[in-house]
């Protein structure tokens, strides 16, 4: 794998994963099985209140080509074909959703020691074109992410980001929502042996003049058990405990409480993922 600044989506990713990943407010169950030929079949269901949403995904791998097929409860078929490194540093992704004839898209990703580029185009007569690029190295990276709608002749998205990384610290600054939102994030590894880390994200909306500050932490109690917690300036506090009772099989329980309305019941989420 090429070492370098990565893709634009990698800017601030460590902090976002710490602050938002694995927190669940619903009940989710996922089970993965493998056939004798190596085909992976994953079934998942999510209970949101009285609504149950389910899907089945099949993954087939042949050398450097991976095909993912997913069918959901709305009878939609999601197809993604990924060709990994047809040339050094290059990845090709083709995706479409049936029966939506306008959903087709081709994406190219290229990773270099000093750059990361991702570009995609819709497979329609007047496609949506997206381009994101990052230049820099493992320490400092500067990037942009833009989308252009050829049907209207207008930009639908233009973002910019800056990232600074050391062996134990990652800081990033991004300008999003067509320049309306500014976000700064911070991730710091405190103790690598126990995967102990702290992180924070501060966002400012220029149109509403609102600020949102979220801080969080994570720690491994033992090699199989991780705890996380976070709180924001609106008084919403979250905590979770995740246990890997066998490799890649996870049990996660998450809770949310509004510290400004402590009389309200806490929200509890549960996720179970089983893999052989």
Question: Can you walk through the features of this model?
Answer:
With 276 residues, the protein is an all-beta fold. 3% of the residues lie in helices and 65% in strands. It has one helix at 13-20, and strands spanning 27-34, 40-48, 51-62, 65-72, 77-84, 90-98, 105-112, 115-122, 128-136, 140-149, 154-165, 169-176, 181-191, 196-205, 210-222, 225-232, 236-246, 249-258, 267-274. It has a 19-stranded mixed beta barrel. The chain is globular, with a radius of gyration of 21 Å.
- Biggest sheet details: 19 strands, mixed, barrel
- Overall 3D geometry? globular
The total strand number stands at 19
Average pLDDT: 95
Fold blueprint:
Blueprint: H1 13-20, E1 27-34, E2 40-48, E3 51-62, E4 65-72, E5 77-84, E6 90-98, E7 105-112, E8 115-122, E9 128-136, E10 140-149, E11 154-165, E12 169-176, E13 181-191, E14 196-205, E15 210-222, E16 225-232, E17 236-246, E18 249-258, E19 267-274
């Amino acid at each position: 794998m090429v070492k370098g600044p990565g893709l634009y989506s990698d800017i601030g990713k460590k902090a976002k994963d710490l602050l938002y990943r694995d927190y669940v407010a619903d009940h989710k169950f996922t089970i993965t099985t493998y056939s004798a030929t190596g085909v992976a079949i994953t079934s998942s269901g999510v209970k949101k209140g009285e609504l149950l949403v389910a899907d089945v995904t099949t993954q087939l791998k042949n050398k450097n080509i991976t095909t993912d097929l997913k069918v959901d409860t709305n009878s939609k078929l999601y197809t993604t074909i990924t060709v990994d490194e047809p040339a050094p540093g290059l990845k090709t992704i083709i995706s479409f959703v049936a029966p939506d004839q306008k959903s087709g898209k081709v994406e190219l990703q290229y990773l270099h020691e000093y750059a990361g580029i991702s570009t995609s185009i819709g497979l329609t007569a007047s496609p949506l074109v997206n381009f994101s690029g990052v230049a820099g190295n493992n320490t400092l990276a500067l990037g942009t992410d833009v989308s252009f709608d050829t049907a209207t002749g207008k930009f639908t998205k233009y973002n910019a980001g800056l990232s600074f990384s050391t062996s134990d610290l990652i800081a990033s600054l991004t300008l999003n929502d067509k320049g309306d939102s500014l976000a700064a994030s911070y991730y710091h590894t405190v103790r690598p042996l126990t995967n102990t880390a702290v992180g924070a994200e501060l966002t400012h909306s220029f149109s509403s003049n609102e600020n949102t500050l979220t801080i969080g932490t994570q720690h491994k109690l033992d090699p199989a058990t991780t705890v996380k917690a976070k709180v924001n300036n609106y008084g919403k506090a979250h905590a979770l405990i995740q246990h890997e009772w066998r490799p890649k099989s996870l049990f996660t329980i998450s809770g949310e409480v509004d510290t400004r309305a402590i009389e309200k019941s806490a929200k509890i989420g549960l996720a179970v993922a089983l893999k052989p």
